[in-house]
Amino acid sequence: MKAFYANNNGLVEIQKWTSNCWIHIESPTESDKNYLLEELQVPEAFYNDIEDIDERPRIEIEDGWTLIIMRIPIKSGDVKIPFHTVPLGIIFKEDICVTISFYKTEIIKDFVAYSQRKNIEIEDNFNLVLRLLLSSSVWYLKYLKQINHKIKLAEDNLEKSIKNEELQALLQIEKCFVFFITSLKANDVLFQRIKNLKAHKANYDPELLEDVEIELNQAQDTANIYNNILTGMMDAYASVISNNMNNIMKQMTSISIILMIPTLIASLYGMNVPNGLEESKYGIWILLFVSILLSTFGVFLFKRRRWF
């Protein structure tokens, strides 16, 4: 999907390319690729780098073209790992500026709508990069809140659980934190490099730089806090599950011992040897009484020792 945006009290979509407009391509088709490589003459190496899902955030300049790659959060649609991070590439040269994402994301539509609400004008290409970094940091925080909600749901299921499924769900959420924390650190390094570019340092909006830095730091701190809470919770509930299992095994063992008492008595007096009760008409009642008495005493003893 290819879209063109231009400044008009915020970003508005236009029908075709004009000088200094912003081109966004999401999930590029073969025709989109040909448009980039043949019409715009975008370096193919840049295009291939963005296509790599594991590409790290960085800035690179080649033949007058500038490539900036940042990592943005997305909902993956995978039940096991509901949130992931993917590269978003910004390629620009003179009056051409293109952003490419090989995955569907909510960030771009939200970014365009926000620019219209706030009447934000994109001053230059680096201003666009900084605002996309700011928007991605905000979305990291949004997704972190959703992840935290999933943690609370898993926590409710864990309270009386003796199974591993709930812990496995938390382990999958922990993977999301790994992706988020790693990507946020890399985005922060990228931001510091852009911030300190001597050729553009004087043109940056100080307030925008401060906003990006604050949101990046807040997203990193939030991700680290949630991750630490999750790690502690998993350790605690692993112990709880183990303790629950031990309690069940203890109760089952106690019941087996209680049931073994009348079985032992019946076995002894059921042998084909003289025992003094074989001729008594009250023999069966005596054995029942002794069995019940000893079993009751066993139950009382186990309860006193809190084995039940």
Folded structure, characterized:
The chain is α+β, with helices and mostly antiparallel strands and 308 residues long. The chain contains 7 helices and 7 strands; from the N terminus they run βββααββββααααα. The chain has a 7-stranded mixed beta sheet, with helices on both faces. Strand 6 and strand 7 (96-101) form a beta hairpin. This is Magnesium transporter CorA family protein. Its main location: membrane.
Strands, total number: 7
How much helical structure, as a percent, in the residues? 55-70%
Can you tell me the overall shape?
rod-shaped
- Strand order of the biggest β-sheet: 2-1-3-7-6-5-4
The description of the largest β-sheet is: 7 strands, mixed
Beta content comes to: 15-25%
Task: Give the helices and strands as they follow along the chain.
Answer: EEEHHEEEEHHHHH
Low-confidence stretches: none
Terminal Cα span: 65 Å
- Please count the helical segments: 7
The helix/strand class is alpha+beta
Evaluate the radius of gyration: 34 Å
Mean pLDDT: 85
Task: Chart the SSEs and their pairings.
Blueprint: E1 2-7, E2 11-14, E3 22-26, H1 30-39, H2 44-51, E4 58-62, E5 65-75, E6 83-93, E7 96-101, H3 107-118, H4 125-158, H5 165-195, H6 206-269, H7 283-304
Parallel strand pairs: 3-7
Antiparallel strand pairs: 1-2, 1-3, 4-5, 5-6, 6-7
Helix pairs in contact: 3-4, 4-5, 4-6, 5-6, 6-7
